[in-house]
Amino acid sequence: MKYKVPALAVVAVLLFSCSSKSNIPTVEVPKEKVLSPELAEGKSLFENSCGRCHQLYNAKDFSAEQWKPIVKRMQKEANLDDAQGLKIYNYLTMN
C-alpha cells in the first residue's frame, strides 16, 4: 500500500506527459456576404458587362471617389443606363 500511491502518481504523470497534444490547425472559411437583390444585380452587371471586354478589377483597388469616373466612363462604353451604372458603383463600393 505504501508504494501503490506513489507508483500511481508516477504512472499518472507519465501518462499525462506522454499524451498527444494534437494541434490541429483550424481553417477559417471566409463568410460569404449576403448581397441584397440590388447589389447582386450590380455584381452580375459588373461581371458580365465589364468582364466582357477586359479583366475585372478588384473592388478594393480603388476608393469610392476613384470608382465614380471609372464607372461613369465605362458605363457609356458598355451602353448601360444610369440605373445600371449606379448598381455597379454600389456593388463596387459596398465595402
Can you characterise this structure?
- Helices cover 57% and strands 0% of the residues.
- The model has no long low-confidence stretch (mean pLDDT 84).
- Helix 2 (37-50) packs across helix 4 and helix 3 runs antiparallel to helix 4 (82-92).
- The N and C termini lie far apart (70 Å).
- The radius of gyration is 29 Å and the shape is rod-shaped.
- The protein has 95 residues and is mainly alpha-helical.
- The protein has four helices and no strands.
- The protein has helices at residues 4-18, 37-50, 64-77, 82-92.
Percentage of residues in DSSP E strands: under 5%
Mean pLDDT: 84
Instruction: Please mark out the parts with pLDDT under 50 across 5 or more consecutive residues, or reply none.
Output: none
Extended strand count: 0
H-E order: HHHH
Tally of helical runs? 4
Structural class determined from secondary elements: mainly alpha
State the share of residues found in helices, binned by percent: 55-70%
Could you say which overall geometry the principal axes of the C-alpha atoms support? rod-shaped
Report, as a whole number of angstroms, the end-to-end distance: 70 Å
How is the main sheet built? none
The Cα radius of gyration reads 29 Å
Tell me the layout of helices and strands.
Layout (H helix, E strand, L loop, with lengths): L3 H15 L18 H14 L13 H14 L4 H11 L3
Question: TL;DR of this structure?
Answer:
With about 100 residues, the chain is an all-alpha fold.
